[in-house]
């Protein structure tokens, strides 16, 4: 097991800066996820940890040992790729044994270790099959077994589930977590799928355009995003520009030009992100925190509006409301039966509770 410390690493490919001045400390035994849209530098960062790329600037250390320019085979990391990267003409056993053969482990030791790991990933009956005769999910298990059999200090997974269908993806998520917990191995997982990141990770780093925007636990990232990029990338949210007006008791008052109204926000750390004087500000309110009622709603931040769209998803219902100022707010409620669904054209009141709003700055590019 290892800690992984990335200090001020930058990777340039010609004119393209794929990763810029990245600082991340991954703890021993942690399940750590790099999350972000396509092209934001996740894979490049993972490859610098694996040793397939060396940083243009900065330092990579494992347990305080400088690994910045150590070749991949000397890092003791296990890697799983999106496309599995197995040898199709070899059997399951041969694929998994490959890394041990390279490391000159004895035949009897190899047999024992491969058999043990194949039991762990529940593929022991398939030992003699060619991998080309396995399903996608089974091939990904072989890739996992191959990465784990060398007893790596760090497990690196690059979008390992993206070629699988939804049901299998769910099953493999649990499988990966079970193995990771069993082995207690420091694991770095790359994905652009926020649900995967939220459900699996101890901590997440959210990337955008080669820069890390925020590092935190899934609940921190969801409940306390540091800027509009993170708020929008993780989950759904309503984002509306606002400007600070004044402070009153335990509340801050912001003016919202779009709603032509003042907005009250509870002045706590959870509700107000750090920002600078010159930052452009937005309020973010999650659809599940928006209250709608046909009858009157009391208290702060109540607006009149009209329902323009109702979307039924099964477990929940999304309702889009156009406020009199023309701004559109989305609300999400758990499905509580047909009698509770609103219809298009219904006149409603919408409340944005002061303790559910988060004030955030616009992300700096
Ligand atoms: N070998 C390379 N040569 C030139 N540019 C590269 C190379 N590898 C990556 N890039 C560029 O660096 C940026 C980051 O790429 P990277 O593959 O790390 O992103 P990513 O977040 O993993 O994306 P995806 O989810 O699509 O794999 C992109 O603009 C990409 O085009």
From TrEMBL:
Keywords, sorted A to Z: ATP-binding, Cell membrane, Membrane, Nucleotide-binding, Translocase, Transport
Top enzyme class: translocase
Record's catalysed reaction(s): ATP + H2O + polyamine-[polyamine-binding protein]Side 1 = ADP + phosphate + polyamineSide 2 + [polyamine-binding protein]Side 1
Nucleotide-binding as UniProt keyword: yes
Function summary: Part of the ABC transporter complex PotABCD involved in spermidine/putrescine import. Responsible for energy coupling to the transport system.
Family membership: Belongs to the ABC transporter superfamily. Spermidine/putrescine importer (TC 3.A.1.11.1) family.
Assembly behavior: The complex is composed of two ATP-binding proteins (PotA), two transmembrane proteins (PotB and PotC) and a solute-binding protein (PotD).
Protein name, UniProt field: Spermidine/putrescine import ATP-binding protein PotA
């Amino acid at each position: 097991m290892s800690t992984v410390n990335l200090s001020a690493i930058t990777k340039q490919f010609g004119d393209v800066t794929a990763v810029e001045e990245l600082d991340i400390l991954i703890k021993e035994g942690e399940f750590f996820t790099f999350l972000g849209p396509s092209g934001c530098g996740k894979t490049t960062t993972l490859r610098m940890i694996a040793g397939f790329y060396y940083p243009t600037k900065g330092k990579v250390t494992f347990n305080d040992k400088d690994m910045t320019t150590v070749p991949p085979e000397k890092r003791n990391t296990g890697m799983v790729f999106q496309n599995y990267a197995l040898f199709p003409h070899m059997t399951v056993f041969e694929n998994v044994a490959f890394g041990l053969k390279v490391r000159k482990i004895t035949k009897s030791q190899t047999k024992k270790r491969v058999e043990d790991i194949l039991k762990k990933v529940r593929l022991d009956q398939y030992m003699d099959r060619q991998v080309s005769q396995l399903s996608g999910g089974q091939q990904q298990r072989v890739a996992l077994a191959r990465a784990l059999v060398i007893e790596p200090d760090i497990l690196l997974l690059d979008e390992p589930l993206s070629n699988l269908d939804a049901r299998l993806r769910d099953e493999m998520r649990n499988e990966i977590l079970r193995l990771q917990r069993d082995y207690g191995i420091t694991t770095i997982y790359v994905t652009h799928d926020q649900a995967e990141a939220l459900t699996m990770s101890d901590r997440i780093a959210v990337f955008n355009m080669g820069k890390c925007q925020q590092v935190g636990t899934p609940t921190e990232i969801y409940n306390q995003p540091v800027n509009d990029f993170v708020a929008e990338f993780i989950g759904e949210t309503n984002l509306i520009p606002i400007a600070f007006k004044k402070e009153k008791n335990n509340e801050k008052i912001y003016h919202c030009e779009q709603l032509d109204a003042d907005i009250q926000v509870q002045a706590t750390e959870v509700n107000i992100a750090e920002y600078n004087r010159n930052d452009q500000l937005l309020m973010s309110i999650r659809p599940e925190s928006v209250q709608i009622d046909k009858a009157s709603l009391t208290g702060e931040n109540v607006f009149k509006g009209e329902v323009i769209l109702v979307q039924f998803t099964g477990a929940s219902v999304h309702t889009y409301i156009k406020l009199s100022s023309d701004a559109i707010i989305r609300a999400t409620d758990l499905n509580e039966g047909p009698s509770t669904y609103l219809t298009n054209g219904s006149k409603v009141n919408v409340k944005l509770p002061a303790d559910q709003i988060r004030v955030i700055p616009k992300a700096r590019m």
